[in-house]
Amino acid sequence: YPLPFVPAYGRRMQAMFGDDPFPFGIEENRPTWEQMLLYTYQQGIAHKHVAPEDIFPKGIMTHVVV
């Protein structure tokens, strides 16, 4: 590696966050979305409190396919 700290950093990330430190998808990130939407409402950024399914159109692909 050109940067010697990268492997150690990767191992530390895996130890802290598990096998998938950056999950994709609405369901995989639901707790984060719910908290962010609550905070935006509480802080007056959003005029009403909404759920994650209210901001994504129905039928949107929410899983990453490789």
Explain this structure.
The protein is built from 3 helices and no strands. It has a domain at 23-66. It has 66 residues and is mainly alpha-helical. The protein is elongated and about 45 Å long. The model has no long low-confidence stretch (mean pLDDT 86).
Q: SSE layout and pairings?
A:
Elements: H1 6-17, H2 30-42, H3 52-55
| Oligomer class | single chain
Low-confidence stretches: none
The percent range for strand residues is: under 5%
What's the N-to-C terminus distance? 26 Å
Largest sheet: none
Provide the gyration radius in Å. 17 Å
Mean pLDDT: 86
Order of helices and strands: HHH
Helix content: 40-55%
By secondary-structure content and strand pairing, the structural class works out as mainly alpha
Q: What is the count of helical runs? A: 3
Q: Would you report the number of β strands?
A: 0
Molecular shape:
elongated
In short:
The protein is mainly alpha-helical. It contains three helices and no strands.
Labels describing this entry:
single chain, mainly alpha, elongated, 66 residues
